[in-house]
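User: Could you walk me through two proteins back to back? I'd like the raw sequence and the structure tokens for each, with a short line separating them so I can tell where one ends and the next begins.

Assistant: Of course. Protein one, sequence then structure:
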Amino acid sequence: MKKKSKCIKCDFTKEFETKGGATLYNFIVGFENGENGTYTGNDKEKPKFRVGEEAEYTTETQEFNGMSFLKIKPFYENKGGYNKQANQRGIFACTSLNKAVEFTTAKYGAESTVEQVKFHATQFFNWLNDMNDGKTPSC
């Protein structure tokens, strides 16, 4: 859930390296509405939360070594752009068309038609979508 409040504290606490080798920085963040928690960012000098500025954020309670703490993250609204489902459908469409051309050419040779390619591409595309949705594809 998105929350909004003025940041009254953003204190650096520690630096650490991820298993992948990236350096991250932990901060204790406090807000005017009384919420306090930890924020992890990738820029020590420019954290996403700045004292005196209003910020939109989300919170999540996390457990670590038997202790629970409030994890604070900047709120990002998805305004289009990358869409995993739309991207996946595009990949399925390209793959289906490519394989339909190969299949149709192998099956019909020089006698292949655009309609045959479209038919097989649609079959492949539907099969991939069914698999992706957890359905048993019909062949």
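----
Protein two, same layout:
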Amino acid sequence: MAREPNQTEARGMWDVTRPNQQRNAIYGERWPTPYIPYTFEKCAFSRSNYGGSISGVYTGLANGNGTNIGTGYPVLYNGWGYGQTSMDWVSFQVWDSNGWPSDPYTLDWIMISRPYNASFWTDYVVRISTGTDFSSNVVYETGGSIYLNTSSSVATYQRLDLPNTGTLQGTTNLTMNTDYNIGLKYTSGWWTYSGNSAYMASGVHTTQQTHTLTNGRTVGMSWFDQVSNANWNGYSNNGTGSTYGQLYLYGLSV
């Protein structure tokens, strides 16, 4: 029978099916199955590839942390105006082709457009929901202020980091093979259309992008339209859809 080890012997998990180890074990203890925690990888997904400015080195593992925001032509400034009663939304799903359909992931950041030849502070809210509207089934909501800085009439896009725990509710801990809606609205400040909108037009957006991680997994992100009621506390869609508009670059931990 196994006995209690004395004070000079180690106490831990022992394989009681082996007599030499059973001798120094507490009855019923076994070595636990080795646990190797999964290491998430940071990966960027883009649904716009106009002029290569929001694809290539700006996506995949090469830009998973969102530090490469792009410069040069075509300059990426706002394609249409924002107002205090408008927002942009699109539906999305992240999936794994290697049989991990319900694995978790987090949405870490999105890229937003800067205004043309202007710099100012503005307040924003980002919301993620399921279903067909933004008023119910909210899983995440965060708000804050961001300084949109444009100089010399040349603007790149700007990363907006999303805290894992929303300032208003929920977390960015999402699940693969689940449909979500993401909306961005500004609650202060506005600017009108000015500049190059070609990179946001219909025909230069893809509805799906995949990347292969270092562990061999292929992960994809798809965009579509499932929101039938786009009203979000009086805000209506500014014009973004699955094949055009804003919300074009996402940073995930997958």
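Confidence is low (pLDDT under 50) at residues 7-11.

Let me know if you want the two compared in more detail.
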